[in-house]
């Protein structure tokens, strides 16, 4: 079987940084348990109608236009399925790589081997790749819209529980950028934290005293709140649900303060809230560094992929 370390003609290139192999293995195991029951599990239809000795070839095909991702999970899905059934692992030849633009009818991979393994693995394989490809396609659409603006599209923590690594990998495959991976790597001071701590400055000081190694981002709904956060020492401002004119004025006010009075030379600015594709360039024109779009992961429809067994 080919692997992501094989030649580009036969294996999907890993998006850097790629998905952790141990994470893929755990996720595939859980997904197969859901579909087959506890290991080794069973597929009552396939195992009743297809003899273990049968072999065949199937094509993984795109049914619609988009950006593909999740191909890096295919080989592990087949490997674990074959192990559960006690059958040989199918061979895979990839014709596309994660991050590739695809069109309807395009064959992404050819799978050859045990027909039982191919059919039992089908739904798990498609669930992972279709989900990831849908997220990648959404990220790619924003990336194309923002091309030349200097702004990048960011994801959020609004991911499917248990699939965050896949969701964020897919965003990267589509040309987007990951924000924080969780609550542990970046401090995000929101309105409830300000209330709990007794003010923006108090909240920032508390984070810096407790976790001096993390960046501190502060959410602001108005220009005044943004300037207050800047004065309190925020590294990064999240400008939430601001009308375009207010957003532009806030960006200008922050940029005017940069490099003076202890403010960093460049404060990173992120626009968020009701950011649709048709507003993307308008929002980017205000001078923000990022647009964070929760819909990339919480609302992206899957990309329709299919596994077609050759007659």
Automatic annotation (TrEMBL):
Keywords: Glycosyltransferase, Pyridine nucleotide biosynthesis, Transferase. Pfam families: QRPTase_C, QRPTase_N. It catalyses: nicotinate beta-D-ribonucleotide + CO2 + diphosphate = quinolinate + 5-phospho-alpha-D-ribose 1-diphosphate + 2 H(+). Residues 43-133 form the Quinolinate phosphoribosyl transferase N-terminal domain. Coiled coil: none annotated. It is an enzyme of class 2 (transferase). Residues 34-55 are annotated as: Disordered. InterPro entries: Aldolase_TIM, NadC, NadC/ModD, Nicotinate_pribotase-like_C, Quinolinate_PRibosylTase_N_sf, Quinolinate_PRibosylTrfase_C, Quinolinate_PRibosylTrfase_N. Residues 44-55 have a biased composition (Polar residues). It comes from the Bacteria. Pathway: Cofactor biosynthesis; NAD(+) biosynthesis; nicotinate D-ribonucleotide from quinolinate: step 1/1. Residues 135-308 form the Quinolinate phosphoribosyl transferase C-terminal domain. Its EC number is 2.4.2.19. Involved in the catabolism of quinolinic acid (QA). Belongs to the NadC/ModD family. PANTHER family: NICOTINATE-NUCLEOTIDE PYROPHOSPHORYLASE [CARBOXYLATING]. This is nicotinate-nucleotide diphosphorylase (carboxylating).
């Amino acid at each position: 079987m080919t692997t992501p370390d094989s030649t580009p003609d036969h294996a999907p290139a890993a998006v850097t940084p790629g998905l952790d192999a141990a994470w893929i293995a755990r996720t595939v195991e859980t997904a197969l348990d859901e579909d087959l029951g506890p290991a080794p599990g069973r597929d009552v239809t396939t195992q009743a109608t297809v003899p273990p000795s049968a072999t065949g070839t199937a094509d993984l095909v795109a049914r619609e236009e988009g950006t593909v991702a999740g191909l890096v999970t295919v080989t592990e899905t087949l490997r674990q399925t074959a192990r559960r059934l006690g059958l040989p692992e199918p061979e895979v030849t990839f014709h596309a790589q994660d991050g590739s633009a695809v069109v309807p009818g395009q064959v992404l991979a050819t799978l050859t081997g045990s027909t039982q393994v191919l059919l039992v693995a089908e739904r798990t394989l498609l669930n992972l790749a279709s989900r990831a490809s849908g997220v990648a396609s959404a990220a790619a659409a924003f990336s194309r819209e923002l091309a030349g603006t200097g702004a990048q599209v960011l994801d959020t923590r609004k991911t499917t529980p248990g699939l965050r690594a896949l969701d964020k990998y897919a965003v990267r495959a589509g040309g987007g950028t990951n924000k924080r991976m969780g609550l542990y790597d970046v401090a995000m001071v929101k309105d409830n934290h300000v209330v709990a701590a007794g003010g923006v400055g108090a909240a920032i000081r508390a984070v810096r005293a407790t976790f001096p190694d993390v960046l501190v981002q502060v959410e602001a709904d108005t220009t005044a709140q943004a300037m207050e956060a800047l004065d309190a020492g925020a590294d990064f401002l999240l400008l939430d649900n601001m009308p375009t004119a207010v957003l532009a004025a806030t960006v200008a006010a922050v940029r005017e303060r940069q490099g003076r009075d202890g403010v960093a030379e460049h404060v990173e600015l992120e626009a968020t809230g009701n950011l649709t594709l048709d507003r993307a360039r308008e929002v980017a024109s205000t001078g923000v560094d990022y647009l964070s779009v929760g819909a990339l992961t919480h609302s992206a429809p899957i990309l329709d992929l299919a596994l077609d067994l050759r007659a």
